[in-house]
Amino acid sequence: MNIVNKLLKSYNYKPELVLDNWTLEHQFVSGMRKWVANIVPSELLTRSFKDAVNSLMTLNQDGNFYEKFPDTIETPDYGDNWGVNANYIEINNRAIAEMGVNEYGENICKNGLLSTIKLLPAIPPSAKSWANCIILSQIFPNIYGDGYNKLPHEENSIYGIKLNAGYSRNIIDFDIEDKISSVEQFKAFNMLANFHGLKTGFRTVISADQIKVVQPDGSDITFDWNNSEHFNMFLNVHIELINCGFEAVFIDSAKHIGGYDMENYTGVGALPTYEQMQYIIHEIRSRSGNTHLSFVGEKSTGDFARYENLGLSTGTGYIDPDDFHTVRDKAIDHKYSKNYSPGIEVSNDNDLGGRTYEQRLHRINNSIFAYEFPSDKLASFMQMEDLFPLRYDTNTHHLMMSNPSYSTDTTPQSHWENLFAKDDGREYNKKVAELFAHTLNL
Question: Is pTM beyond 0.70 here?
């Protein structure tokens, strides 16, 4: 069965699709590329899953409206080395999950993947010359309270994960897993993202003390890179995710693999050796049969051969994002570097806020315009907040380290309304769309 139609039926919707008037009223158009803008996220997050699919079909780039979702969807094709030039946009799918209270009075968090699907129509699709790629912040269960929201300053870090425990209850809809599995839910998400002209990926962690291995008949134990069972478990679950349709892996703390620059290492626990990570990246490509995968390293230095030989496509944090001419000069320097080149950050997962809207817009402008020719463009890295500004008293890093609900009445709708900036956020989102609109046909 068509996997998107299977997900529709799992929510008791018929697979027949209709033109979505709300989408037509809010769409931005750049040639054949369309998305919705001048919005606040709650306008999409409070809609139904069926509304989201209707919206994506209404925005279809080939100009046709299909009354049922197509059986076969191809990923946007930019060749094997697309990752060198892509815009990576990390979406904190846990932060936009459904925050509520269950029948036992417990504060729960669920359905982050469904929320991300609802947000897809507001993500600018890929350009003519390069891909836009969503990176999901959470895939695996987190160690401290997966499936629950907590008070704003209680620990509930995304950076601490469990293996051998399936996928996060914050993300997967386990209420319908008897109808559609976790793996199928990921596949449906990836098909919908590809249909909208996006590539997809996910964040992973490699610091051993930030990974727990769940034992069915005992207590969780700390991950050990020298334990062959743990090593293969890590490798196999990443291959499974790639086989679900993800095409990029963002590797936390990648700069420090093999003990490099450890005086600046802020993770917890041992890292894989250079040879181990080289093997993992090679095997994921080889066993999945995907030669076009992009592996993104957190932080880059001038030692580009180190990262290229590791198997990475790009890395973050090497180039001054505030100076247009610096970015342009680096783009010219690396115009022939098609296996690996450093990228430019608008913001990263450690962003503590405080940057003005004008500063963010300036960095986005530098990310997508600072080059001599479009084919020279360097990769860029953005966070959800760079498209959809958060409320004034939180920030990207806070939402990675904790999982608060901002609901004033215990409903998910109130959380979505209060998580993001309102009127000023809408105006900012419009300005971001205007920037992207000028690039998508380059």
Answer: yes
